[in-house]
């Protein structure tokens, strides 16, 4: 049982002091200042005055009309980021689920190695991983070189039926950004999926298979409902970093594939409009909190359901 | 289950690893995750300036990388920052974990919840927070002697690392039998003494795991450092980023390969230290703890 802090005041205050100090001074304070800035206005070149204005948030929604987003520059930016992050999460789920399943039901002595296979890229520097994709995707990259040799092979057999090789534009566009985001975030999806699947009661799966359901049907009717909370946390853990990605769109994307984080960066660095950048950052923070709250509700529900089932 | 089943038998219902769609997906994901990294490492040994056309083996880009003074300085900066950030994160994170595990106090939920925010909040938000903080509230003096000039980056790294350490340590504390600490106190140990001699030895594996996590997080970070670093405090990822902007050459590949090798070696060392069961921690019924 936990002890009341009054019973060991000295120890309590000693242990609490450093973490509390660090959290308040070096985390809460910086974010609070950014939050205040989001209600501020530029004054002169370097100063920001806290005027309590909502104009920075207003600017984000400027041009927004009912059911018409075409003129709302920043709303479009958010929608595009949502689309990229959502698509990334979906692809990660589709790619990651079979892998998590394989690891879960692998023989014990293989498990650590398979997990290591998933985690090793995870330990590798994000910048290095993103950089490695440039050589794969660019016009004279590995994918196009492979396609070119296949193309030339067909040409030499058929006597030039396909014509000259046209390299696919794979880098500096939206495709490259989603490809990069999947590459970077896939381990984030596999690990929570594995930990959810590993906790399942296997006899229920066996029962479903014994009673004549196929593997696909067992997955959707037994595994997915039981591992629902784990799947939801995998989705969340992939979606949130993907939504706030800076490096991947910056290095792999083109001018039209910038995401929220890139615009925030340019507001703070080149455009030097800190209040507006602060407002954009805080919209991202609010979205994160909303996503976590939704996941909390989902988890509570699924817990209540599983407890109700047992009672 | 002492004998492994013969390959000739059809796969058992739950032997998914022996079914071809699962095997195919495993192979596809493995190629997807590793091919870009392995080719990047391979082309760091290329003789030519190209990073996609192989023309012969050479170590000249490693020589270049080791003679690139600003790259070496950036690498040393990164290691120094990671070292200090790990040290502080470990102490602060462990203290937070113990206080949350051991005590009941008003505002505990708030404290606990706030500790989780650095883990979930997008990096870019923390990055701009640090930019504003070190520009307006605590301007870090320029021209301080090394390693004090890295202070701002170290502070920023601790802020996002120590909550991770706290999570790891707290998970381990869950398996601690509180009666042991009470027994120590019954036998005359003070609160502090009981903590140091009974609780700390129990959480030692999680301290190592937490330290490794903090070290990697710090070495890996680009975005937050990018917003906190000044012109004379360039870290390795920031340096590689500016090299990539300038040109894509095998020298960048060589530098990246060195970083990958360092991280992989550290990971293996830590796993060896803890036993490979650390990978399946919490899923093997605690078999690894009895090592």
Automatic annotation (TrEMBL), chain A:
Family membership: Belongs to the binding-protein-dependent transport system permease family. CysTW subfamily.
UniProt subcellular location: Cell membrane
Species per Swiss-Prot/TrEMBL record: Asticcacaulis biprosthecium C19
Transmembrane segments: 12-37, 82-106, 113-137, 175-197, 218-243, 276-298
UniProt-recorded name of the protein: Putrescine transport system permease protein potH
Keyword field contains Flavoprotein: no
Limits of the ABC transmembrane type-1 domain: 78-295
Main location: membrane
Topology of this chain in the membrane: Multi-pass membrane protein
Organism superkingdom: Bacteria
From TrEMBL, chain B:
Signal peptide as annotated in the record: none
Keyword Cell cycle among UniProt keywords: no
Superkingdom in the source lineage: Bacteria
Record keyword Cell membrane present: yes
PROSITE patterns found in the cross-reference section: ABC_TM1 (PS50928)
GO biological process entries: transmembrane transport
Chief place where the protein resides: membrane
Keyword annotations from UniProtKB, A to Z: Cell membrane, Membrane, Transmembrane, Transmembrane helix, Transport
Protein's cellular compartments: Cell membrane
The ABC transmembrane type-1 domain, residue ranges: 75-270
Gene3D superfamilies per record: MetI-like
Cellular component annotations (GO), alphabetically ordered: plasma membrane
SUPFAM superfamilies, alphabetized: MetI-like
Chain ranges passing through the membrane: 20-45, 71-101, 113-134, 146-169, 206-229, 252-271
InterPro entries on file: Bact_Polyamine_Transport, MetI-like, MetI-like_sf
Membrane topology of this protein: Multi-pass membrane protein
Family the entry assigns: Belongs to the binding-protein-dependent transport system permease family. CysTW subfamily.
Designated name of the protein: Binding-protein-dependent transport system inner membrane component family protein
């Amino acid at each position: 049982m936990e002890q009341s802090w009054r019973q060991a005041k000295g120890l309590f205050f000693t242990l609490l002091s450093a973490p509390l100090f660090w959290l308040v001074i070096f985390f809460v304070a910086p974010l609070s200042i950014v939050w205040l800035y989001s209600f501020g206005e530029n004054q002169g070149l370097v100063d920001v005055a806290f005027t309590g204005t909502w104009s920075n948030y207003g600017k984000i929604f400027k041009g927004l009309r009912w059911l018409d987003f075409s003129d709302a520059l920043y709303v479009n930016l958010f929608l595009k980021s949502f689309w990229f992050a959502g698509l990334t999460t979906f692809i990660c789920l589709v790619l990651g689920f079979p892998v998590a399943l394989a690891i879960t039901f692998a023989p014990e002595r293989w498990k650590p190695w398979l997990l290591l296979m998933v985690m090793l890229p995870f330990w590798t520097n994000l910048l290095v991983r993103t950089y490695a994709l440039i050589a794969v995707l660019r016009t004279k990259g590995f994918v196009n070189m492979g396609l070119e040799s296949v193309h030339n092979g067909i040409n030499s057999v058929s006597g030039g039926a396909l014509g000259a090789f046209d390299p696919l534009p794979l880098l500096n566009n939206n495709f490259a950004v989603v490809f990069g985001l999947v590459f970077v975030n896939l381990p984030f999806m596999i690990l929570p999926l594995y930990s959810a699947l590993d906790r399942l009661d296997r006899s229920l799966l066996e029962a479903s298979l014994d009673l004549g359901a196929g593997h696909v049907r067992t997955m959707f009717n037994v595994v997915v409902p039981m591992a629902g909370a784990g799947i939801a946390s995998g989705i969340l853990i992939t979606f949130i970093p993907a939504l706030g990605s800076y490096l991947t769109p910056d290095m792999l994307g083109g001018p039209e594939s910038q995401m929220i984080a890139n615009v925030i960066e340019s507001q703070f660095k080149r455009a030097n409009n800190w209040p507006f950048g602060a407002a954009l950052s805080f919209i991202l923070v609010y979205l994160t909190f909303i996503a976590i709250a939704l996941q909390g509700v989902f988890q509570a529900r699924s817990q209540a359901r599983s407890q109700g089932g047992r009672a | 289950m002492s004998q492994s089943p013969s390959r000739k038998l059809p796969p058992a219902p739950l032997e998914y690893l022996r079914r071809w769609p699962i095997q195919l997906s495993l192979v596809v994901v493995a190629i997807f995750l590793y091919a870009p990294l392995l080719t990047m490492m391979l082309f760091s040994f290329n003789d030519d300036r190209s990073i996609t056309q192989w023309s012969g083996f050479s170590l000249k880009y490693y020589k270049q990388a080791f003679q690139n003074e600003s790259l070496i300085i950036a690498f040393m900066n990164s290691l120094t920052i990671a070292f200090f950030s790990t040290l502080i994160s470990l102490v602060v994170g462990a203290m937070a974990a113990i206080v949350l595990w051991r005590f009941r106090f008003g505002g505990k939920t708030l404290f606990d919840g706030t500790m989780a925010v650095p883990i979930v909040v997008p990096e870019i938000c923390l990055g701009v927070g640090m930019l504003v903080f070190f520009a307006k509230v605590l301007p870090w003096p320029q021209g301080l002697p090394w390693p004090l000039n890295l202070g701002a980056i170290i502070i920023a790294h601790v802020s996002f690392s120590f909550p991770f350490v706290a999570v790891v340590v707290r998970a381990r504390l869950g398996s601690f039998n509180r009666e042991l600490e009470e027994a120590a106190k019954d036998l005359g140990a003070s609160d502090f003494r009981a903590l140091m001699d009974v609780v700390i030895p129990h959480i030692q594996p999680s301290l190592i795991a937490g330290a490794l996590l903090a070290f990697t997080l710090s070495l890996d970070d680009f975005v937050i450092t990018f917003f906190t670093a000044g012109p004379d405090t360039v870290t390795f990822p920031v340096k590689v980023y500016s090299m990539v902007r300038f040109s894509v050459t095998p020298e960048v590949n060589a530098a990246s390969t060195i970083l990958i090798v360092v991280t992989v070696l550290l990971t293996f060392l830590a796993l060896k230290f803890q036993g490979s069961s650390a990978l399946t921690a919490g899923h093997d019924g605690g078999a690894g703890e009895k090592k």
